[in-house]
Design a protein that fits this description.
The structure is a single chain. The protein is mainly alpha-helical. The chain has 21 helices and 4 strands. The strands form 2 sheets. Strands 1-2 form a two-stranded antiparallel sheet.
Length: 484
């Protein structure tokens, strides 16, 4: 990406010496800003569906549609907004991005008006889509071929720390907290957005004070080049089939943010902390990915992906089987001195399975995707590999809205339509009696996602069979041509 900032490149941003973990100051400040940005985003994102329904007044279906469009654009736009950073410079781009994020998050919390919320989410999309390519571009330009792997390992470490911390603090803000000497602070879910705005503002201050433009000459692409590349990728049927198949995995994992928070709170109670449950996924990935990557080092990428797609249905199935455990144990299970609801216990197993599946999928997917790319276009295709996330997260939120409304409805909807059922729900949440019939089939929504996982696995096996036959025929035809 080419910087045209009049300030010129930062002379401190030379590649660090080989064999060390030393990087220029700009690299470290960029990664610290990224930590705050991820804390802001994941704190808001894990609460988004709850906020749109509980505070803004969207129905489950409409909230799912809004969040689906937000997620689609958030993962799709970075490739198209990268050239903006080339034209105005990395520093100016980050200042713009964090200003948009600060304003977007603040507006999201300040006004619970549907049209305003949509505008706020659009600002977050624009800001986030600028941040992604600039921070990763900074990591690339502040390292050399010997230290690039280390640079990106630090980058991903910061991303995960930010993600973990954002989801850790979110329930304290949503539920309120006690501060010794000051008493209890009752905040509420809208303040999660103000927390996100504060994190984004801290990142903005860091960039203004400490970030300097690295030398980005020679890596830029124009808007027209990006668009042409996107059209070429869409035209590759084999690659797009792979993208859609793998999207099935991420659609199930997307329920960490789409269906799971509402499902847990509506069946366990407001005291539940689905944000903490969501943190099990990155914990499993961080602790297991190195071992799993070593384990499958000699396994073909498509076979490792198949393992992940074989694991992921069990994630959803674990959630679906919670009522079986609940009938056997009641509403509380003692685990290592902690009293847990059976739904929480099964969620832990399900989310851990997601993390394990991701360990088999993520390290091998890019290798497999690159093999599907035409010779010489591997970088282009890997640049658009996040298309699977765009597709998956759109489906995840859109579908979850309908499934929640059908099987695990908003209690406030019951309050209007069936006050007696609402009263029964309140008693059940307090531990007095069974759930009303409106929630009798709540676990069915997880069977839908288990089915998506099974279909994705079968689709991959079919994809392997068809492409292998096509490759054999092409090789035979080439051999026949060569022998003549």
């Amino acid at each position: 990406m080419h910087s045209t900032s009049p300030a010129g490149p930062d002379h401190d941003a030379a590649p660090s010496p080989r064999g060390t973990w030393r990087f220029p100051a700009t690299f470290w400040f960029a990664n610290i800003a990224e930590l705050f940005e991820r804390a802001a985003f994941y704190g808001m994102f894990i609460s988004l569906q709850l906020y749109l329904v509980g505070e803004v007044g969207f129905t489950d279906v409409t909230a799912g549609a809004v969040a689906a469009c937000f997620s689609l654009l958030l993962y799709l736009m970075p490739a198209f907004l990268g050239p903006l950073a080339d034209k105005i410079g990395f520093r100016a781009a980050l200042i713009l991005a964090f200003a948009l994020l600060t304003g977007g998050y603040a507006l999201l919390g300040a006004l619970q008006i549907k049209a305003t919320v949509v505008v706020a989410l659009a600002l977050v999309v624009l800001g986030g889509a600028i941040v992604k390519p600039v921070i990763s571009g900074t990591a690339a330009k502040c390292s050399d071929e010997f230290n690039r792997a280390r640079a990106f390992s630090i980058f991903y470490f910061m991303v995960n720390i930010g993600s973990f911390s954002g989801k850790t603090f979110a329930p304290f803000i949503r539920q309120g907290f006690d501060l010794p000497g000051f008493g209890h602070f009752e905040l509420g879910i809208k303040y999660v957005n103000f927390y996100a705005a504060a994190m984004a503002f801290i990142a903005l201050v860091i960039v203004i004070i400490a970030y300097r433009n690295p030398d980005t000459a020679g890596i830029g692409r124009s808007f027209s080049e990006v668009f042409d590349s996107f059209i070429r990728v869409l035209g590759n049927g084999r690659f797009m089939c792979l993208i859609v198949i793998v999207a099935g995995f991420w659609t199930i994992q997307g329920q960490l943010y789409a269906a799971m928070p509402a499902y847990i709170i509506r069946l366990v109670g407001e005291q539940a902390r689905p944000e903490w449950l969501a943190n099990i996924n990155p914990f499993v990935v961080v602790t297991c990915v190195m071992f799993v990557t070593h384990l499958v080092r000699n396994v073909k990428p498509e076979n490792s992906i198949a393992i992940s797609l074989a694991i992921i249905p069990f994630s959803a199935l674990s959630m679906a089987l919670a009522p079986v455990l609940q009938r056997a144990t009641g509403n509380s299970i003692d685990i290592l001195g902690f009293a847990m609801h059976p739904i929480t216990v099964m969620a832990i197993f399900g989310i851990a399975a997601q993390g394990l599946g991701e360990c088999f999928l993520s390290p091998k997917f890019m290798e497999y995707a690159s093999k599907q790319a035409p010779k010489g276009e591997e970088g282009l295709y890997l640049g658009f590999q996040n298309l699977h996330s765009s597709i998956a997260w759109f489906i995840a939120f859109f579908l979850s809205g309908f499934l929640l409304d059908r099987y695990c409805p908003d209690p406030n909807k019951l309050k209007v339509l069936d006050p007696a059922a609402y009263a029964q729900w309140q008693d059940a949440i307090a531990g007095n009696g069974a759930m009303p019939t409106a929630y009798a089939s709540a676990h069915y929504l997880w069977y839908v996602y288990a089915g998506i996982g099974v279909v994705s696995l079968l689709a991959l096996l079919l994809f392997k069979y068809v492409t292998a036959n096509l490759d054999r025929r092409a090789a035979a035809a080439a051999a026949g041509t060569g022998s003549r």
